[in-house]
Amino acid sequence: MSSYRIAIVGSKEAVAGFALLGVDVVPMQETEDAVTELMRLKKAIRIEDGRERNVYGIVFVAEHLMTKLSQEDLKRLSRGALPAIIPLPSHHGSSGYGLERLKKIVERAVGSDILK
Amino acid sequence: MALLRVNPTRMALMELKRSTTSAKRGHKLLKDKQDGLMQQFLVTIRSAKELRMRVEAELGQAFMSFLTASAWLSDAEVENALSSPQATIELAVETRSVMGVKIPFFRLKKEGTVRNYGYSQTNTLLDRAIDAFDNAFETLIRLAEIEKQAENMAIELETTRRRVNALEHKMIPDLQETVKYIKLRLDEAERAGIIATMRVKASMKD
Fold first, then answer.
1. How many domains does the structure of chain A reveal?
2. Predicted complex: ipTM over 0.85
């Protein structure tokens, strides 16, 4: 058991509410390169007891940033045990991306969408 | 189905029979793993879906109250209020193995107070908004945990399903067919041998 940090990525308005909770806020405009930034957070490593560990346990990402990622990048990001990269609805409201993602996960595991 | 490229000899036959049995055993084991994982996965994904809906509702509320709060304040005031977080959050992670899949369990350790801003330049709406985010955060962690678990299981399920299918529909039939082919060839060679001896014997009588 070891402790990790939590990061949240998104536009300023989307992450502002979380700023006081003690999470690492990574403000990012929609035009920026979300993939490299997420990869950087995923690859961030610290040394604990002589072993390499991820810095971040969870990375929350605003939905509208996730929608722009390609399938391949998403697959690369979801590989490995940690961090968990989780899309969140932003201040624009839910775009249904989160549920869409769950649907993809089911399709991957079962072969067809059995949740409806 | 394709025949495997082996010499039709007794050695190869033995070897193939052995690998057929181990392939069958592997197939059964993997199938069991797949069934077990699938059971777990379905439970997880159902609660993930429920939780996801709840989070979206909760966060929607939180964003709403945050927007109303910031409507009363200038941008600078909001920024000032949010600029110096005092609370710290640490995430304790424990990984457990379910059917050979590592799945994470998260626990949150919070310290310090969240409302760390002067009251003179803010309003109670902001207090409520921050509280809403604070409350939603617990649920968010649960969601992250359960979605990551589901994701990891899905990845493992996919590979297991591929393996099971490959064994069931390609490897085992191929092996069985090759075994049959070698048996036929050996029988044929045996009969040919007998006939040859019979013919030699018959020609010696004359």
1. 1
2. no
